[in-house]
Specification:
CATH topology of the largest domain: Multidrug-efflux Transporter Regulator, Chain: A, Domain 2
Strand order of the largest sheet: 1-2
CATH class of the largest domain: Mainly Alpha
Shape: elongated
Helix content: 55-70%
Distance between the termini: 53 Å
Number of strands: 2
Length: 147
Amino acid sequence: MADGGLSIGQVAQHTGLSVHTLRLYERAGLLASEVRRDGSGRRVYSAWDVEWLANCVKFRASGMPLTTISRLAQLVREGSGNEAERLTLLREHRRSITEQLMRLHDCLELIDGKVASYEQHLATGASGDPWQQQPPPSPTKHTRQLG
């Protein structure tokens, strides 16, 4: 575009989001700034809009609810003075991701144990059901239970 802005199609290519999703994000208040329009009424995105949308993609991939992204975007639109609330939102989501990572680590340990059991079973030609022959957990690993 002549003024340096990006069309919705170009933003879709840069972010991996569909044009439909970009429109949905705008309607849902997920953008941290108002999207400008050109003389023909077409959306014109700035480089900052693209950067924010890239963050939104990561927020969503990490499981952040759309309502939280919307609140964060609203706070950013409001400008300085609400950094403590932004930090609270981000810390809460960080805690959620940390818990998710611990659960996934526990799952990975189970899968690793089963893979090792089947590899050993196949390599040695052992008899019996390898599912029931999982090696004991390594004494150096700590599995944390989450409630």
